[in-house]
Amino acid sequence: MGLYRKITSSLRAKLLTMFVILTCLPLIVVGLISYNKSYNTVFNNNKAATMMLATQLATDMDNVFTDTKKLLELEKNPNVLHFLFSQTDSNLDAREILQTMSSYRQTYQYDSVLNITMINLYGRGISERKGVFQLNKNALRNPHFEYLIQNPEAVLNIPPDDSSSLDPLDGFLYKNHNIISIVSTVKQRVTHEVIGFIIIDVDDSIVKQFCDNVIIGKSGFFYVADNKGNAIFLPSKTAHNTKWIQNKTISSIIENKNKEYVDSSEGKPEFIVTSPSMSTGWNIVGVVPLQEIVEEANSIRQLIIISVMLSIIFAITLHFFVSNRLTRPVRILKNKMQLAASGFLEAKVVLAGTDEISDLGNSFNIMLGKIRMLLDQSINEQQEIKKSELRALQAQINPHFLYNTLDSILWLAQSEKKEQVVQMVMALSKLFRISLSKGKDSITFEKEIEHLQSYLTIQQMRYRDILDYEIAIDSSLYSLLILKMTLQPIVENALYHGLKNKRGKGLIRITARIEDEDNFLIVIEDNGKGISEDRLGQLRKDLLEPHTPKETGNEVSGGFGLHNVHRRICLYYGESYGVQVDSIESEGTIVSIRIPCDWG
């Protein structure tokens, strides 16, 4: 709001804003469009390149495992079938099997294959490292063999983390290698009954190389996850990567047809891409900070920002050269107008030239002359208007008070209380007669007391259970002149806002005295509920306002109240006179009215 006020209150600021908007807005719009297109182009190209790289890695891994799985063709070798199906030792079959294994190695150059093992359901097996051996435990207790018995067509690719303690069938443990075990069934040709298993131990470095040798951007990386999204092969430098992977899950993206997405759940956004390996059932997962993917687009954004800032600086510089000549006459005229607004009506404008601003200055000088002439006339008229308004206020009568009084008279008449009817009618008649007073503004203090007694007589008959009053005024003061209806609004406040909210009967006491040679003091005191400190402070503040606030002490008869009584006294006698309120909550209120002594 402060910046908006500065712009709208200054011609120079408006010109500056116009220059900046007209210069920079088109450039900003073009820059945003360019940035958006360049961002999308760069992001889509890099995304496609990353996706292609992940797909290539998955394809390469498929090729490696496809070649390795050619060793599973050994299950069709007659010697293997005879060895696994037979229950007796056959050294010839064993030699033939080992020679066949060696032949495969020489043909396909299986450097990563560490060992090939075959075993039948009874624990009789053969491996490259140990030759023929016999297990001393049930081979079917191996959980991987149990699964293959149920799913004989499946081929298991078992990473190091998923290996079982029962997997080393020939008892050999690898000290310097972690292995991936490729496990399949061997089935009888005719009945397709499972007669054994073939296990190929592969050095896991053939998979790790896919994670270690390829990076994305500056800090992105690839890792291998199983079909559930769990990481099974990580890059060698995994200090940061392991922590990231532990906090993430890609199971949802693996199951989804959309194989890439941007993850913003933690810290800076990360671009994640996956590509499945059909041969293994695993997934190549690539992770790279999104910032690196769109780095080129960010460079374009910085160039656009620099261009816009230079344009703004140029616009501001041009503004100071152009606007100074345009706004200088306006500033002179503004200063003269501020002087005139502060009350100095002799502030004339002298401007050189014949343009519109000079014409405006001449018109301003003519206006000041007419204002000075009209001001004196307006002061006299306003004083008469205020007095007329006060007289109109005095002539008003609160209809609620009249209705309630007439209802009380009707009730008394129906109850055949004739004396009380007569007393209340006489009091009401005297109240109205003194209120009118033939249009006079001032009446004697004696008449004002009679008016107040008539009012209290009516109210006491209506509120006999809560109202007592006492008027203790020396008769020597009766000849003093006082503004008509000064006391009744104050007493009405005391009754309605003091005694009516008090338990039991209350007392209103009216006293008066000569304060000094020139001033006359009237005190109206009640023992009602009083006024809180906050409300009293607000009430005193309202009495100083030139116009009646929305809530004073509250508005009472005929539109009068504490505020109206106070303003009438101030207008007639001056600001040194008026109403003063003192109160203690739950104890009572004292209203003091100070007016000058006027003996008529």
TrEMBL record:
The keyword Nucleotidyltransferase does not apply. Gene3D superfamilies: 6.10.340.10, Histidine kinase-like ATPase, C-terminal domain, PAS domain. It is a multi-pass membrane protein. The chain crosses the membrane at residues 15-35, 303-322. Residues 324-376 form the HAMP domain. Keywords: Cell membrane, Kinase, Membrane, Phosphoprotein, Transferase, Transmembrane, Transmembrane helix. The keyword Transmembrane applies. GO terms for molecular function: kinase activity. SUPFAM superfamilies: ATPase domain of HSP90 chaperone/DNA topoisomerase II/histidine kinase, HAMP domain-like. It is found in: Cell membrane. It comes from the Bacteria. This is Histidine kinase.
